[in-house]
Amino acid sequence: MRVILILIKKEFLQVFRNSLLWKILLLAPLAEFLLFPYTADYEIKNVHIAFVDHDRSQMTSDILSKFSASQYFINHGIVNSRTDAEDMMQADEIDFIIEFPADFERSVITQEPTKIGITANAINTVKAGLGSEYVQRVLADYLMGMSENAQNPLQPQVAQLVTTNVYWFNEQMNYKNVIVPGLLIILVTLIGAYITALNIVREKELGTIEQVNVTPIKKWQFLLGKMIPFWILGMAEFCIGLVIMKLVFGISIQGSLLLLLGLTAVYLLVMLGLGFFISSVSRNQLQAMFIVFFLFILFVMLSGTFTPVEGMPDWAEYLNYFNPMSFFMSAMKTVILKGSTVDNIRDQFIALSVMAVILNTAALLSYRDKVQ
Amino acid sequence: MKVRLPFRPQQAIDTPYSIQVEGLTKRFGEFTAVNHISFEVKKGEIFGFLGANGAGKTTAIRMLCSLLQPTEGKAMIAGYDLATQPKLIKRHIGYMSQKFSLYDDLTIFENMQLFGTIYGIPRKELKDRIFSRLEDLHLADKSKTLVASIPLGWKQKLAFATAMLHRPDIVFLDEPTSGVDPIVRREFWNLIYEAASHGVTIFVTTHYMDEAEYCGRISIMSHGELKLIGTPTELKEQMQVDSIEKVFVKYVVR
Amino acid sequence: MKELRQILKKEFTHIFRDRITLFLVLAIPIMLVLLFGFTISTDIHHATISVLDLSNDSQSKALVDKITASGYFEVVSYPKSEQEIDNDFKDKNIKLAIIIPSAFEEQLTNEKFVTIQIISDVSDMNVASILNNYVKAILNDFTNDFNGTATMPIELCTQMMYNPEANSVYMFVPGIITLIMIIVTALMSSITLAREVETGTMRMLLIAPVNKAWVVVGKVIPYMILSFISTITIIVISVLVFKMPIKGSVWLLLAVCIVFMLTSASFGTAISSLVKTQIDAMMITMMGLFLPTALLSGFLFPIDNMPYFFQVLANIFPGKWFIIAIKDVMLKGSGFFDIWLYMLILFAMAAILMTVSLIRLDKRR
To answer: Cβ–Cβ of C279/A198 closer than 8 Å?
Structure first.
């Protein structure tokens, strides 16, 4: 016990003496929280749009003003020719070109078939896709209004299905509610896996590990002496994150705080085990860093933090059974935003516990106090 | 310079040897770093291990300290079998590696406290031992200094003191004086003598030929093989030269 | 120059001796590109949903069938009441619940106006809004089928410029190239330089009578070469596997990559001149360069959505300029005169950072 305590003390002293690392540990969550939620906004606003109008009628100018009124569009107005519009798109000034044919108004009134050309800059597929939706909606609204004026609105000739949308678990549709819990997880993962993965390799590189290995210390003592300090740091980091989440972003935890802490405690064990496993199989910090980096990106991408899991091929969904972050992410989000209880997240808890046991055993077995 | 090393209770070892090595070999793939070396070191002896850089000295010493798995051969260290009782061996040896390997970002005291605790020295006694050692080394007032900021000579003495803290039977020193000035080297050898006078077996590697003269017995290693072994006087007589340096040169030239 | 050759030789020996690291450096970017390419997609299929059908008549069943047949949704539960829906969200992790009111068929035929309730889990807003759009499209189809007419008399011809199949790979590949180049060049050079500092060998190199610039350049060049190999591999994969076009000149593309590598390497050098340990170098590169690049370069999230401050901040990270330049060359076929400004900005960043870090390194001695 005394041995483990002195090892913990040593690890803490080293972290706190490295003023830079200490600052990074403190600043990282702050910086992350201040950067991400304001930048990681997928919602498509500010669709830049320009018109090529071969008709120049009352109707086209009405449609134009509809677009100007919409909050989604920034209307660059009418451009003289198609070529000019394409030049603007080439220069990234506009995302959409809407082209009205000559005789557009007359065709609509006489109910002749006519076309509206929509050209999207499709490099950003999300913007192109959602933008087209918006364009269609504005046009449909306009045409709907037109037909309602023409007919008696009380007796529609055709059946209509309308939807009422109810939004649960994030009623204000605040993007920050979605991204902040995700950030918290990324943060815990970074601290857990990265710092620990580099830690033992660093001792190998500096040679200090030899001086420890030549003592009669037991493997489990050594590993516990490394795990506990970083586990505490990880938990502290998580708590700082929670406080920021509550105070800065006003996101309150719907479920139980204790459950959240328990979940994080287990998840950190998984990450520490992984970090130490990587650390004991790597020869130098560069190797360790590359392996963790790869796994980190793999975990983040597969977990659905940035792109929906539902959009991934089946094999990626199966890979997620080996992705601790994915389990943690779904459990955390559901506890924070939906108020789920232990019963709802039992599966995630079990999966994470199993991973923790496996990885820590692997770390213990792979750590060699003797070079082969 | 006076070194106080409290008397250590005699341990029952059946042989007069504290190190017995037989056919110890280490191969890294095709390369044989240490090739079937065999020798014995008596209790309380200062045994010098000489050789050019890359001769296999460090590989040998790391095997003896159970830091490196031997490919072949056996060894008894402090009365224990290297193959089966590594933990017991580690309890009875001290080790100072070629590269300074205490923690730079801990203070002198913290380093000694860390290793002393790992060896299981009781808290109160540990503190006394640390301070009495530091006083001997004239470092007591520097106990709160970060190791990173002390000169190399002090670092070497500190590393030695730390390796001796748990009063080992044998201490392995891998080129303890490389890179330090002649005065510090002299002081360092005083520390070694002092320890030996208390019955500690000293196993020291060096490439300074003058230091070889300080040793009780020396062995010369070359290309992984142990070529010569004996007291400095014996070797000089055998090769008919007047210094170990000449033995070495003559040997290497041959 | 002779000194430089010596240092290069030493560094290459290090790199080739450490086979595992070499393998990681070359293999990981390839794996990442494949991973990103195959998993990043904003299209959704098989989203899990619940349907509460309060009518259970032939029209409501037809509607449910249409929803299932779309391939976007997988109905995992048919709850009996609204209370059960809540549990489906928490337990089955459904993304959406659809409530079809009672007497659906009757209302549709007689009153010609039915309200369908959609409950979305907006704890993932992107998914929620995409799914809502899908549902609306399906409902629209359904009413058109029911009425036998289209509600929109005007045909909309949508044309996707630069990316006719609306392939999301086009949007992500330039970003991936950028991030991987930063990892290989900036991170590797900052870490190897920091390693020399950490293990104390840097002092020896700096005391030695060689030009300090050569020390740094010699350490950085090998990683630039590795990074260049990675970049070419990634571009080849993007073209062969993901069918990215290179509409502009390949030489111009490579030239832009080389300039960006210079910038990344200078960033790495500058970071290493601030730190004493590899962990610090890594943390700063990750937090100070990698993360902001991922966020602010417009690779994952559109820059013009960000608050003004961040739009300005985005300019100081080289990733933004590089992404614009390679997108223009690859997808739009832009020539040198379209992108020279971006190249100049990148080059200026490299020059400034390299000078600053050499000065700092000089002081450290």
So the answer is: yes
